[in-house]
Amino acid sequence: MNKKPLVIAALTLAIAVPALETWAEVTFRNAVTGEVLDFSFAKAGGDSEAFKKFKETGKNPYNGNKEIAEGKGHSLYLSACSGCHGHEAEGKIGPGLADDYWTYPRATMDVGLFEILFGGAQGSMGPQYGNLNTDEMLQVMAWLRSVYKGDPAKADWLK
After folding, report:
1. The domain made up of 25-158 is a member of CATH 1.10.760.10
2. Average pLDDT per run of 10 along the chain, which is 159 residues long?
3. Which residues bind heme c (predicted)?
4. Nearest to 115 by CA among 98, 138, 97
5. Which residues are annotated as part of the binding site for heme c?
6. ∠ CA 147-118-31 to the nearest 5 degrees?
7. Which residues contact 66 (CB under 8 A, 6 or more apart)?
8. Distance between CA 98 and CA 76 in Å, rounded?
9. Which residues are annotated as a binding site?
10. Where are the domains of the chain?
11. CA atoms within a 13 Å half-sphere pointing along the CA-CB vector of 33
């Protein structure tokens, strides 16, 4: 039996499969229902290069950007989130967001935190797609990640 075609096919797959993964976008789901999120409901203006990259990689490109986090990210957080989560993400009506306890374990990843912001959660946490555009959500997330006081080993977004 000639094994050369099998070897060529195996090598082709070994090269092609990782290449396909770089073209695929992350699937974002509602934190409560599991349904795929529909970005057509999003507030206009959020289709930035950063958001496009986030949809491909699932990693927030603004993480670690002190200028974004402490500037617009914090300002947006104060206007959209602090009423329930406190001015420093310490928690009030809603849970604290700066520690390593997460009501939704997927929030340890950027994709999961975005899913909660965009689509809402149980209780009084409604979807934020009407208040913040998708790029602004990434900026708020960058601020939240910058004030994290929990165990770095539990912070999947750092990996």
Report:
1. yes
2. 52 45 78 95 96 97 97 98 96 93 92 97 92 98 96 89
3. 81, 84-85
4. 138
5. 81, 84-85
6. 90
7. 146
8. 16
9. 81, 84-85
10. 25-158
11. 8
